[in-house]
Amino acid sequence: MTQQGVRWTADQVLALAPDAASRKAGSKLGAAGPWSEAGSADEGTVWGLCKGSGSKPYQTVIDIADASGPAYKCSCPSRKFPCKHALGLLLLWAGGDGAVPPGQPPDWAEQWIKGRRQRAEEKRTAGPSGSESASADPEAARRRAERRAVRVTAGATELEQRLTDLLRGGLAGAEQAGYGLWEETAARMVDAQAPGLASRVRELGAIPASGPGWPVRLLEECALLHLLDQGWLRRERLPDGLADTVRSRIGLPASADGPPLRDRWLVLAQYDTADVKLTTRRIWLHGADSGRTALLLSYGAAGRAPELTLPVGLALEAELAAYPGAGQLRASLGEQFAPPAPASIRPPGLTPAEATVRYGEALRDDPWLDSVPVTLDRVIPTQDGDSWQLADADADTALPLTPAARARPGLWRLVALSGGVPVKVFGECGHRGFTPLTAWPQGAGEPVQLC
């Protein structure tokens, strides 16, 4: 990617946009008109001056060679990262029509790049410090962990009693009590330092208002919550891997202490979910040599995009370390040996029938798992009444799409990409159906992001 002849696609650039408004505004700046003195360097720097409403143009510089994704600097007042000027400059560079020629960066761009890379090198050579110094006293850390375990046990015991009261009084009482009862219970779980339990309790509170069939869904979720409670209260009897999974689901912190796995990791999908406090970015990776699938999580404060950005279709050579827990796919990004670059790798695919079997097998290790990452091969999007499904082109089987997937614009991008012929689709397969995230056309072609 850092060589002049290699370019990203427009879709990969626009995938960096923090929101739809930035995507639209950045697209308008992806032409040569407002830009002057634009250039790029082999070490992965792109810069340019963009004419704005003021007398002085905005200075925009991008470090493309950063192994965790592009870094940006713009003199505009926008608080979005990347801003529309950075997106426009990247689109101009991605066009590869000579509008961003090779050259030597101006002083203002070179100073920022040099300072940024120097700080990154100092951080790398210094090694981790904050978390290690905080836990330098193992005895103090052990006592803190014991105190927290006591609080979580008290919270789990109280939650068991509340679930018992609910079932004894009948599920109809949940609808009459309203959301306030659940919010109070969730607050008690937060006080018990069990954020995972709190999150699941809040989900229970929304079920009575979720439409027809809510009692069945409420009973199912209560059963899973009861199972998680009992897993914590009996964690000493569980196998180590399942006990780690229970701790993770409860919300206890853990470190990625698995052995590092070096591979060329293809970015399968990237998407954000947000609430009033936090934006969570999920990035799915596929190891070209190991065949492993891994999940990277990155977080940003409400209203701000997370820092880690890896557009779909790029691959990076790096080490990943796994988090503990049976069947857990989350990993931590370790040392990176080259910046992300476009790749023609495609993950191997399964049939819809094999995908459902894989989800069932994963539930043995993690009963609270909503879905598993799956690549489907040779499937065709078809409509059956009001429902959509991905039908196996070679057998009489299909996977229904989740209600969330049917409501997204990405469904129509998938239908257009297929045109009635088989495609390869990566997504998440669970008890609610399949959510497509990325698709590849038959034969050669760039991946299309659907989320």
Give the count of helical stretches: 14
Low-pLDDT stretches are 1-5, 128-135
Structural shape: globular
Q: Average pLDDT value?
A: 87
Strand content range: 25-35%
Query: Would you report the number of β strands?
Result: 16
Cα distance, first to last residue? 24 Å
User: What's the Cα radius of gyration?
Assistant: 24 Å
Structural class of the helix and strand makeup?
Answer: alpha+beta
Major β-sheet annotation: 6 strands, antiparallel
- What is the assembly state of the chains in this entry? single chain
Helix content: 25-40%
How do the SSEs run, as a string of H and E? Answer: HHEEEEHHHHHHHHHEEEEEEHEEEHHEEE
Explain what you see.
Residues 1-5 and 128-135 have low confidence and may be disordered. Strand 6 (278-287) and strand 7 (293-301) form a beta hairpin. Helix 6 (138-169) runs antiparallel to helix 8 (179-191) and helix 8 packs antiparallel against helix 9 (195-206). This protein has helices spanning 10-14, 20-28, 84-95, 107-126, 130-134, 138-169, 172-177, 179-191, 195-206, 214-233, 240-250, 352-365, 403-406, 410-418; strands spanning 35-41, 45-50, 58-63, 71-74, 261-274, 278-287, 293-301, 314-322, 331-336, 341-342, 371-384, 387-392, 398-400, 423-430, 433-440, 448-449. Strands 5, 6, 7, 8, 9 and 10 form a 6-stranded antiparallel β-sheet that branches. The chain has a 6-stranded antiparallel β-sheet with strand order 13-12-11-14-15-16. A 4-stranded antiparallel β-sheet has the order 1-2-3-4, with helices on both faces. The two termini are 24 Å apart. The chain has 451 residues and is α+β, with helices and mostly antiparallel strands. It has 14 helices and 16 strands.
